[in-house]
Amino acid sequence: AQIASSLPRLRPVVSAFAGFLALDPVEFGHRMEFVQRDLEALRSIGKQAGTMLQTRSQAAMAGVSAQITNISTAMRQQADSMVQGAVIAHDVLSSQDSRTRFGKDLTASARGAGFREFDARVQAIAMNLNSARSLLLSDMDQVREEAEAHLEELQLNLGPELFASLMQPPLDTMGDRPFHIPINPGDNFAAAVTAQVQLVRGQLAEAPFASGWASGRIESMFRSEISANVSGGWTLQTIDGPVAAQVASLWQETVAREGGLLIGRINTLAGMVQAGMAALRLNALRIPRNPTARASLAAIFAGYAAQLKQIRENSVTDPAPHAT
Which residue among 9, 220, 290, 304 is the one 20 to 30 A from 180 at the CA level? Predict the structure, then answer.
């Protein structure tokens, strides 16, 4: 039972040893050099891709930081421009009730102007990030293609069965294409950014306007009163900061995560294969160098592999009876 449970990993190793010993030492040495070349290439690809992902992500965030920082300021400017440009009839100032009615209407219009500026800025941010994301993910897709080319060579030189036996969780359940991660630049990222950032707008307080008695008949005080009501809550803390946080979070979830997952698998796979080869001491199969001795050992391992195969087939076709 103990042998049967270890067969899935043991038989491919024994079979691979038989195949490697059937090669002359020089050919086997070249095979191992090719394996090391591909492992080094994978490690290099993973390192370069990690640097690229980090620097391009930082550049993308820096590229929109000025737009994000100025959102609340631009909103206040647009709203205040509408308030200052509104025509206020003399009779509006005559009573607190008339000022309140007029102020409510102007507040709604001024807030609308501020929110239109918010939407325009967010749309520009979303489009800029979408362009940066598309370019980055396209480059990450090229990274995957390059890594898969070396992976294919690695599988061929080690043999598909031995390669599979070296895989540990979580890569042991991903078949022969562990780098097949969906990396889709897509065209819905801009819409996702816009929708995510709208959460910030939805949390902005909109206090109803009510004119105070102190504004009296002084028009400038009345306008200031309206402006304060419209945009008093539009600050770096309520708009710019939360927008920056939402944008960074979405970038991390949809860009850095996909790229990071690919890079992690490349690095993990290279490490697993290297560790597995070291544990099996594959390089020791350069010895013996005598062709007759190598052929004899190859035959022994081939016979052992055949026995293990037979044991496995018997365990499948003739399972142990259940205890009664």
Answer: 9
